[in-house]
Amino acid sequence: MVIRLDLDRSIASPEIVRTRISQAPEHETIILGKYKIKNFPTKLALATALLTGCRAKELVNQIPRCEYREGMNYGIKGTNLEVEEYEGEEFLILNVIVLKKHLMASSNRTVAIPRKTEYEPFAKMIEDKFIQIGDNPVFPYTRQILSLSAKQVFNGLKYYIHPYLRFEQGEKMAIEVQGHLRDMAIHSLRHIREEELEDFYNLEDRQIQSYFKWSNRYMGISEVMGRYRARRDWRMYAQKLLKRRT
Prior knowledge:
Elements: H1 14-23, E1 28-32, E2 35-40, H2 42-52, H3 56-59, E3 81-86, E4 89-98, E5 107-114, H4 123-133, H5 143-153, E6 158-161, E7 164-168, E8 173-177, E9 180-183, H6 188-199, H7 205-212, H8 216-219, H9 223-226
Antiparallel strand pairs: 1-2, 3-4, 4-5, 6-9, 7-8
């Protein structure tokens, strides 16, 4: 069944989300309760969240004491970005962490972003800011601040969540969740990026799995088939990202 959500301008699409981020302020003051956070890098934060597909808690480095675990890595630093060449094109390679509730330790994944702005308009901003920040946290904030910023920028937008399996009890029990609409929030950017990778860049399931480092179980792939899809390397999808946007 094909759902024509693009007919409703209140429904978020990758194009609408990119426009909102492009029009967002470089910096703004975020008021959270009695706290006033000045110079929050709104555009950088939302662009990074979109392109990496990170969860909010994987970007920021200020974690509630009740959630902190010894030995876990939190947040992303400027030095997590490198530039690599592949088949004649340069890519920004971001090494980001993966944090899941059932995992007792963090893991990592690499995300490739074309360096040329004709392919990725947000690339230069991300590269310049990360180099400037260096070996320091890029987002020394809480996820609540990041979430509030996203709600302000995406105010009035909703996004469609396709049916999926939700795993509980340490991924021992799978619950099928029906498709539904939600208000746009910071976590929504993961779904928007997935849609963009599939529809605009034509990535295959195994390439999207590599991008997000999703488990075989999440993708509905048997363990036997998973052995043939185990190569989680940005080079398997990099060339498909070389599609002009400007």
